[in-house]
Design a protein that fits this description.
Elements: H1 2-41, E1 43-46, E2 59-62, E3 71-77, H2 81-94, E4 101-108, H3 112-124, E5 128-133, H4 144-161, E6 166-171, E7 174-176, H5 180-193, E8 197-201, E9 220-223, E10 231-234, H6 235-241, H7 250-254, H8 257-260, E11 264-268, E12 273-275, H9 277-280, H10 290-293, H11 315-328, E13 330-331, E14 346-350, H12 353-363, E15 369-370, E16 373-374, E17 382-386, E18 389-395, H13 396-400, H14 413-428, H15 442-451, H16 454-459
Parallel strand pairs: 3-4, 3-6, 4-5, 8-11, 13-14, 14-18
Antiparallel strand pairs: 1-2, 6-10, 7-12, 8-10, 9-11, 15-16, 17-18
Helix pairs in contact: 2-3
Length: 466
């Protein structure tokens, strides 16, 4: 009898244990489902698939109150493994959180050494992925079509397929400043609050140490000239640009008036990016701007841009302040810079492109023109520092009536005029050609034919003699 009772008790205990386990399991499943519903109410970020050996869909759920995604960082690379390693090391050292910034390495082509570097970072860091574009064939050493095709493909991918709202575009030959991410976090707010601003750039084209106020790491400017070289754009802008994106020279295309549509970019006084000249090589421009680029360093400051109100670059208040600065600035004599007082701003005017070249040459500003615009120009106004004073280089009409600042219109003929001035400097002022300097004249065309240089002349494109 006792044996029977023991068997019965054992059986009931086993059954009871199973029931308890089932109840606990059901409770746990119910808890997980409720947590899942809660997470769905928060932000869900779907990072891109890695193109390493086995593509994986990385899905990261982020609490909107703590580590909300700010932007993806799209890193363009192709053939420079050391440059890519250097750039990614800086990006990841400065990245505040792998939740806030997803890194996407976009490789053009399949150079093994570059792929190996990319895969190493994918393996070692969270929210770093690698995608590869089939490289466009290059004809006659012209990289520009390949670069444009890669940009179009990668930007389409991150915005349309991966569905990011904001992307920071960088390149493997760039170094970055200490407050790079703070700057772009602030810049995202600017993009979202002012329709007259279409990009935020970390680059100052005239950012050489002698041309900037090195004490003003917090100073930011509007510019009509698209700077690139570390820049942020929104999904809405890319939806506008993507259908007409050009087959080559995409950055100059961005500077065309019909593309820019009177919108401006934000750029800093002190660049937050710089070219690593040791690792970059000549680049796609063939080293044309090496002398300028080598003088520009990424900021070593550490500015908390969250303390800077976005209203400082809001068009209405910014324009009003700039007009007042030009009105109150003292006239400036280009030939006499010794009597400048640090408590004052100064201004100098230009009437035409020859004037501009004369002034830019004196200050060692970049002289080239795109879309009728000088680099860093805003309504034709270019700013710099000289002897610790702020100097405004201003169109003659604005110089006479600063209140007419926003009536200034860029002249697209300046591109062709500037091309002639550069042509003249290369062939005529160096005495390669000693006749009348006119590329349209029969005499000069005959000279180029005799030298076997006719194609060189044609490659300069349309020019206007000034």
């Amino acid at each position: 009898m006792k044996r029977v009772l023991r068997r019965a008790a054992s059986k009931h205990a086993s059954t009871l244990f199973k029931v308890v386990c089932i109840l606990v399991l059901c409770s746990f499943i119910f808890y997980l489902r409720s947590e899942d519903r809660q997470l769905k109410n928060d932000t869900v970020i779907h990072a891109p698939r890695s193109s390493s050996t086995e593509e994986e869909e990385i899905s990261t759920q982020v609490n909107i109150h703590e580590d909300k995604l700010i932007a993806a960082v799209l890193v363009f690379c192709a053939t420079r493994p050391d440059a890519l390693r250097n750039h990614l090391s800086q990006i990841l050292a400065q990245r505040p959180s792998h939740y806030q910034y997803h890194i996407i390495i976009s490789q053009d082509g399949n150079k093994t050494t570059v792929t190996d570097v990319a895969k190493r970072f994918v393996k070692d860091f969270k929210n770093v992925t690698h995608i590869q574009h089939e490289k466009t064939e290059i004809k006659k050493r012209n990289n520009y079509p390949a670069i444009s095709a890669h940009y179009k493909w990668a930007l389409d991918k991150v915005f349309k397929e991966f569905r990011y709202d904001h992307v920071i575009v960088t390149e493997d030959d760039l170094d970055i400043g200490n407050d790079f991410f703070s700057y772009f976090n602030w810049g995202k707010q600017v993009l979202n609050t002012d329709d007259t601003i279409w990009c935020v750039s970390a680059w100052n084209d005239n950012g050489g140490g002698s041309l900037i106020d090195t004490k003003r790491g917090d100073l930011v400017w509007r510019t009509d000239f698209f700077p690139g070289l570390g820049w942020m754009l929104s999904k809405e802008l890319w939806e506008e640009l993507s259908p007409g994106f050009p087959a080559a020279y995409w950055d100059d295309w961005m500077r065309k008036p019909e593309v820019r549509r009177n919108r401006s970019c934000i750029r800093p006084e002190i660049s937050r990016t710089s070219h690593n000249m040791k690792l970059a090589g000549k680049g796609s421009s063939g080293g044309m701007f090496k002398d300028y680029l080598s003088k520009i360093s990424a900021s070593s400051a550490n500015i908390d841009f969250s303390l800077l109100p976005t209203t400082v670059v809001q068009k209405s208040s910014y324009d009003k302040r700039l007009v007042e600065d030009i009105e109150n600035a003292r006239p400036f004599d280009l030939e006499n810079t010794t009597n400048m007082e640090k408590t004052y701003n100064y201004k100098i005017s230009y009437k035409n492109i020859r004037d501009w070249h004369r002034i830019a040459g004196k200050f060692k500003l970049m002289t080239d023109i795109r879309g009728g615009m000088q680099r860093t120009a805003y309504y034709g106004v270019v700013t710099l520092t000289l002897n610790d004073c702020r100097v405004f280089v201003v169109p003659e009409t604005t110089y006479q009536k600063p209140s007419e600042l926003t009536n200034y219109v860029y002249d697209s003929n300046w591109d062709k005029q500037n091309r002639f001035i550069e042509f003249e400097a290369y062939y005529c002022k160096t005495k390669k050609y000693t006749g009348k300097c006119d590329p349209h004249s029969p005499e000069m065309i005959a000279f180029f034919k005799r030298k076997g240089w006719k194609k060189r002349l044609d490659d300069w494109g349309e020019m206007i003699v000034v």
